[in-house]
C-alpha cells in the first residue's frame, strides 16, 4: 500500500471516485515537465522580464513536487515549505524587477544580449 | 523492474516534445507556433497515455489530466508568446491550473494562498513593470514587436538541453520511486488534535465524552528530527483529560468522535508554528531585505545644480525634518525639488 503506486486521493471531501489512482509519479512528471519548460524559456528568451517569468515557472514546478510529496507522506511539512517558496519568489520578483527597471533606464532596451559585455 | 511507464514511450515523448517546443519558439521568418504546439501536445498526450496504460485505473482521473494539460499548455505559451504581457497572462493561467492540482492533493490552504499571492500580487507587479519598461511604439507601426521579442536565442540547443534534463529526471524518478515508501512515522494525520485543547473540548462535550468539571490538557509536544511525534508512544495518540480532582485519563484514538477532524489550514499552521519557527523569522528577514534592496535599486538619482540644492537644504531645515542627516538628504532621492527631478536622470 505504501509503494509509489499508492493512489494520492483527497483526505476528505466528496470527490474520491474521480481522483483515485493518480500516483505520485504523475504529479512529479508534470512538475519536471514544467521545470524543463521554464529552463528552456530562460535559455531562449531574450526579454529580461520574460526570463524572470520563466524562473517563476520553475518555482511553480518545485511547488507542485513539494505538495505531491506532502500528500504522499500524509504530512504537512511539504505544504509549509511551499509557503517559503512563495516568500522567496516574492522577494526574487521584487529584486529582479527593480534590477530590470534599473537596466532598462541605463540602455533603453530589455534585451538580455545587450549586456553580454559584462562577461569580461 | 516495475517502472511507471515504458522507457521507449518516455523517450519518444521527450523527443517529440522537444521537436514541438523547438518549432513553436519565436523565429525570424515564420512562426510555426500552431504546428509546434500540436506536436508538443501530442507528445504530452503520448506520455500521459503511457502512464495511464500502465495503471489502467488512472485513466478516468479527469481532473488531474485536465489541470495538468492546461498548466503545461499555458507554460508552453508563456515561453513562446512573443509579447511579454501575454506571457504574463498565460502564466496566471498556469498558476490557476496548478492551484487546481493543489486542490486535488487536498492542500486547500496553499491553493488559495497561491492564487492570492502569486496570481494576485506577484503577477500584477510583473504587469506593472512590463507596462513601465517597454519602449513606446512609433507612429507608423504601433503593433511592431522589438527584435529581441521576435527572435529567440539558440532555440535548438536550449530545447535539447531542456529535454535531456526532462528525460534524465523522469528516468531517475522512474527508477528511484518504486523503492520509496511512505513513512508512517512521518504521517501527521489527526495526531495533532491531541495538542489542540480549545478545538477538541467543545466537540468532546457535544459527544458526551467530557464530564462536568473535566478539561482537556494539551499533550507535551515531543518531536523527532522531522518535527513529528515519536512513534509508538501511546500517550501521543491520545487526548489527555484532567478531571476536577486533578486525576488524568487518556482518550485513545479509537474512541474519538467521528466529527473530530483536523482541517488542512490547521495542519499547515501547526506544522509552520511548531516545527519551523526559525524559518518564519528568516522568511521575514528575506522579505525585509528584498524590500530594502528594491527601494535602493529602483531609486532615481537626481543631479541638482547649486541653487536647487541650497533651496532643498533650506526647505528641509525649515520643514521640521530635524534629526535626519543634513548633508546627503538634499542631494539625491525623494527630497528633490519637484521641477528638477525630471531632467536629471541618466
Describe the protein's topology.
The complex is a heterodimer of chains A (120) and B (346).
Chain A: H1 16-19, H2 24-44, H3 48-72, H4 77-107
Chain B: H1 7-24, H2 33-54, H3 62-80, H4 84-104, H5 108-132, H6 147-150, H7 155-176, H8 197-207, E1 215-217, E2 239-242, E3 248-251, H9 264-275, H10 277-298, H11 306-318
Give your account of this protein's structure.
The complex is a heterodimer of chains A (120) and B (346). Chain A is mainly α. Chain A is 68% helix and 0% strand. Chain A has 4 helices and no strands. The longest helix of chain A is centred in the last third of the chain and has 31 residues, at 77-107. Chain B has 346 residues and is mainly alpha-helical. Chain B folds into 3 domains: 7-179, Four Helix Bundle (Hemerythrin (Met), subunit A) (Up-down Bundle), CATH 1.20.120; 191-261, no CATH class; 300-346, no CATH class. Chain B contains 11 helices and 3 strands. Chain B has helices spanning 7-24, 33-54, 62-80, 84-104, 108-132, 147-150, 155-176, 197-207, 264-275, 277-298, 306-318; strands at 215-217, 239-242, 248-251. In chain B, strands 1-2-3 form a 3-stranded antiparallel sheet, with helices on one face. In chain B, strand 2 (239-242) and strand 3 (248-251) form a beta hairpin. Chain B is flat. The chains are: A mainly alpha (120), B mainly alpha (346).
